[in-house]
């Protein structure tokens, strides 16, 4: 499958973004508030992130949850269990039946996406973080990956570029762009069902030193299907002197593919690691103590910065001998938790880049994460950006120049 950068301008590559995100497959999110009756029909745990589960992908669920070695064996045989696009269309039809009205706290920021309908935008954990750094904090950011030549690829391209993200390292390929259904319950908790069927992606052998030259940070999300490209990216990034940030993705990913994750951490190449409370629990499953404090201490053995987010209870972080614990900032009840951890990472990274203290980094992350949960989707709207800057000012945190 041929590929070409969206921008062939070599000058653009010379002006390297400060932060790069690796998202092998560009992704488009379909976000909607739904009632419990739909969530109860879907296999898998609420709050998780596994491929759409309808009859043909039931085997994926069984293999990854009950017999991961067999799943890996099938991958090695080059027989991935694909989720058909027809299944995605099926679940989207069901979403339209079960969708419920959602009145965002910022009533005027979703005019293009009526709250009683599905909101479609560029998504993926890394894309959310990179977009947040660029649009909300004014940090020059770019993304490495691939998007299809379909309408979803054009949507991803437009959404990211309009938020100031450098796309000169994003390959354009013939084929489908990945999609994900984000189901949000009445409490604001999200359940992710990605569809990666035949989606285009950047391969490990396509990465070059030029992709990373001149940048300072590389942002990654752990995923077993992307393990080879992740390892290749880390190797090249380290050769170019970049710091590496890793998000643990989901509790299912940690539970089922813990050993490859531990090898990544033990390599010493991960400088900053983000985990939510569920992921941290899975990481320490079987240990006598599996609490957030123990988890952050465990991660800090391998990483310069270790962060465990605790949802409405804030976060705990460690850097060197310093430990910080910061409460959440914002509404007690989230409209949609989609992207909360991703945008927390944006704020925390901004703090690290600006040389703030560990506690201040956590507070900026809390402001950023608290801003995105005020409306549907993993994108901080203009009004919520202003809310975030106000919270930062109240807490005497330095606001980015872009806020002025």
TrEMBL record:
<dbReference type="InterPro" id="IPR011611">
    <property type="entry name" value="PfkB_dom"/>
</dbReference>
<protein>
    <recommendedName>
        <fullName>Carbohydrate kinase PfkB domain-containing protein</fullName>
    </recommendedName>
</protein>
<dbReference type="Pfam" id="PF00294">
    <property type="entry name" value="PfkB"/>
</dbReference>
<dbReference type="InterPro" id="IPR052700">
    <property type="entry name" value="Carb_kinase_PfkB-like"/>
</dbReference>
<keyword id="KW-0418">Kinase</keyword>
<feature type="domain" description="Carbohydrate kinase PfkB">
    <location>
        <begin position="101"/>
        <end position="378"/>
    </location>
</feature>
<dbReference type="InterPro" id="IPR029056">
    <property type="entry name" value="Ribokinase-like"/>
</dbReference>
<dbReference type="GO" id="GO:0016301">
    <property type="term" value="F:kinase activity"/>
</dbReference>
<comment type="similarity">
    <text>Belongs to the carbohydrate kinase PfkB family.</text>
</comment>
<keyword id="KW-0808">Transferase</keyword>
């Amino acid at each position: 499958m041929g590929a070409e950068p969206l921008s062939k301008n070599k000058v653009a590559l010379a002006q390297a973004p400060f932060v790069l995100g690796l998202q092998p497959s560009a992704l488009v999110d379909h976000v909607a508030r739904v009632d419990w009756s739909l969530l109860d029909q879907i296999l898998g745990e609420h709050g998780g992130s596994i491929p759409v589960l309808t009859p043909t992908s039931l085997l994926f669920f069984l293999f990854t949850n009950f017999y991961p070695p067999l799943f890996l064996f099938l991958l090695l045989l080059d027989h991935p269990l694909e989720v058909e696009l027809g299944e995605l269309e099926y679940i989207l039809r069901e979403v339209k039946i079960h969708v419920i009205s959602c009145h965002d706290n910022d009533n005027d920021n979703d005019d293009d996406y009526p709250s009683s309908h599905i909101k479609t935008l560029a998504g993926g954990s890394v894309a959310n973080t990179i977009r947040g750094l660029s649009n909300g904090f004014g940090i020059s950011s770019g993304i490495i990956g691939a998007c299809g030549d379909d309408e979803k690829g054009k949507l991803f391209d437009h959404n990211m570029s309009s938020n100031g993200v450098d796309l000169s390292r994003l390959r354009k390929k013939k084929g489908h762009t990945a999609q994900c259904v984000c189901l949000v319950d009445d409490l604001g908790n999200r359940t992710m069902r990605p569809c990666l069927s035949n989606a285009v992606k950047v391969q490990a052998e396509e990465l070059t030193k030029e992709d990373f030259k001149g940048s300072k940070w590389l942002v990654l999300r752990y995923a077993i299907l992307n393990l080879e490209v992740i390892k290749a990216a880390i190797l090249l990034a380290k050769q170019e002197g970049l710091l590496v940030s890793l998000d643990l993705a989901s509790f299912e990913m940690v539970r089922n593919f813990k050993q490859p994750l531990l090898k990544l951490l033990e390599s010493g190449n991960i400088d900053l690691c983000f985990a939510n409370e569920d992921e941290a629990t899975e990481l320490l499953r079987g240990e006598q103590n599996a609490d957030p404090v123990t988890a952050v201490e465990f991660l800090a053995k391998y990483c310069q910065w270790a962060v465990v987010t605790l949802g409405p209870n804030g976060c705990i972080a460690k850097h060197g001998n310093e430990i910080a614990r910061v409460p959440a900032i914002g509404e007690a009840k989230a409209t949609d938790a989609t992207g909360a951890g991703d945008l927390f990472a944006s704020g925390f990274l901004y703090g690290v880049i600006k040389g703030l203290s560990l506690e201040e980094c956590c507070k900026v992350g809390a402001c950023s994460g608290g801003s995105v949960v005020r409306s549907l989707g993993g994108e901080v709207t203009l009004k919520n950006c202003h809310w975030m800057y106000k919270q930062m000012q109240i807490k005497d945190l330095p606001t980015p120049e872009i806020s002025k």
